[in-house]
Amino acid sequence: MIPEIGVFALALALGLALVQSILPMLGAARNNLLWMRSAHATAIGQTVFIGLGFAALMRSFVVSDFTVRNVAENSHSLKPMLFKIAGTWGSHEGSLLLWVLILAAFGAGVSVFGRNIPDSLKARTLAVQAWISVGFLSFLLLTSNPFERLYPPPIDGNDLNPLLQDVGLAMHPPLLYVGYVGFSIVFSFAVAALLEGRVDAAWARWVRPWTLAAWISLTAGIALGSWWAYYELGWGGWWFWDPVENVSFMPWLLGTALLHSAIVTEKRGAFKSWTILLAILTFSLSLLGTFIVRSGLLTSVHAFAVDPERGVYILALLAVSIGGSLALFAWRAPEMEGGGVFAPISREAALLVNNLLIAVATGTVLFGTLYPLFLEAITGDKISVGPPFFNASFVPIMLPLVFLMGLGPFLSWKRADLRGVIHRLRSILAVSALAALVIWYLTTGGPALAVLALAMAFWLFLATLREWAGRIKLGEAPFKESLRRARGLPRASWGMTIAHLGLAVAMFGFIGSSAWKSEEVVFVTPGSSIGIAGFDIRFDGVARRQGPNYIADVGTLAVTRDGDPVTTLYPEKRFYPVAESNTTESAIRSTLAGDLYASLAEPAADDAQEGAWTLRILYEPLVNFIWLGSALLVLGGFLSLSDRRLRVGAPRRRVALPVQGTPAE
């Protein structure tokens, strides 16, 4: 009965979405206030009904209702409760239901918290959001019903993919989806602005907090997924330029550009077309990622293996959404040009170059991701575009961007004195160059690009601290005065400083763990020793252990340095009998200087060598700076989002609108 209630709730949500997609838009066209404000009730009602459907599916997983096909294929009665709950979004159907729930929740959020948004703009925004809901709710009900029954039901299920039975990955999809789908409301704001024919500073201020919320969640989701891949998959890497990794990274890149572009639109009235276009393209890339993951085009640890016919439906939604919005942009955007005039050397110009570099970098990633797919579709040839291409093409584009990130905050709006700014920063440039030379010497050479990138990381870190110190007059005024100024800084300013520092810190981890990683893959028997990065590691054998729903072979590695005990590592190789699948659980000794990383690969195939295993040992310098930097990025985003200026927004304009049967305001 509960699954049928879930289907009925989704059908009601689709009906409300259809009403919301039409009535408020007509109300905005006819200045009918009652019709426009109907979007408030329909947006909240849609969220409530989708939430009921999601709760019904989660209940089916919690009680192991194997009469529901989705539960039977993705759960098991012996599975820990956390992973039963995570199974709700661990399948194609469940994750899509979470997708539409978040989509509706963002619309309801604008309805509830956007009281200062003009009624016509809010009505059009929520109507566009409902168009997207109609598309995905109909896709869910017609092709991907999460409550489809299974008769006769199996005694037990097939279990969730063992790779997904991890605490980190239990939270990874919801965070990613909040980021992906969060950009939908920014897309809706952009289309609504094009329909109204007006973009101004108030519009940019209304858009910024929603952009920031989506960006924060996407940042956290990507970082959590990277951390999961690092410790769970056993290969010792945190990023492989996998196509499904790329489709989450591209919206993050354009979302970053969108945040900076909206600031210029708000403060200077410029970059209006840039901001609108970036809003459209960011969500378009989110839709493209949804199509790639669910169309059957890819085979990946992240991707869902589904019927390609479903991809045709999403491709049609993609064509309508992207094609329609870009056509509208081409028609209406020229009418909205104008705004502040600025010199070639100014903060606006630096942010414009920032947008161009990010757009080019995103295009590079998009090309590398889609080219193999197009080539296979046209010629049947299969090729792989992997890390060498992306590292050689993406990194050189981003280094000038990092330099501009350090320089930009020192530039004035409209017109800046570049010579004066460089003079102020000459000591930081010298220290950054010296740091690069020291690193070069300590690593006895090393990749030139890595050393240059590390110099840029030092530059960004030191320049950001210098800009913050200048704001509070640290060293120029009495300490109490500097402290008072620090307390008085807007949270958005603190957020910018911490986020820029976070990127610099993460860069230390990116570069150190990529350029100076040590790795040993060896065949070992009990008593074997391996040396790496100054550590001596003795393999003491493997013992078998029974888990809740798996059987584990647990290795024991005694680690010493210069004869002194350091730690004992216990890497695991797990077998899940129900899914008939193996996973690797790495053992990691983490310090800020680097990680000592161990994983068991495969036991010896030769019975004569009982107790022999293939062992992977790595030393990853500075890798934990990646997670530290990511945490600072998220913290900076939250501080900016908590800024009172973003929460209050612009004053609401009261406009008298003739409404039939309702007193005009």
Characterization of the model:
The structure is a single chain. This protein is α+β, with helices and mostly antiparallel strands. It folds into three domains: 2-330 and 345-397, no CATH class; 403-516 and 627-633, no CATH class; 518-624, no CATH class. Helix content is 62%, strand content 11%. It contains 20 helices and ten strands. The protein has helices at residues 2-30, 33-62, 69-74, 81-86, 92-113, 119-143, 167-196, 201-232, 243-268, 272-294, 308-332, 347-379, 387-407, 418-424, 426-442, 448-471, 479-488, 491-515, 624-641, 644-648; strands at residues 518-524, 529-532, 535-546, 551-561, 564-569, 572-576, 581-585, 587-590, 594-603, 613-621. Strands 2, 3, 4, 5, 6 and 7 form a six-stranded antiparallel β-sheet that branches. A four-stranded antiparallel β-sheet has the order 1-10-9-8, covered by helices on one side. Helix 5 (92-113) runs antiparallel to helix 6, helix 7 (167-196) crosses helix 9 and helix 9 packs antiparallel against helix 12.
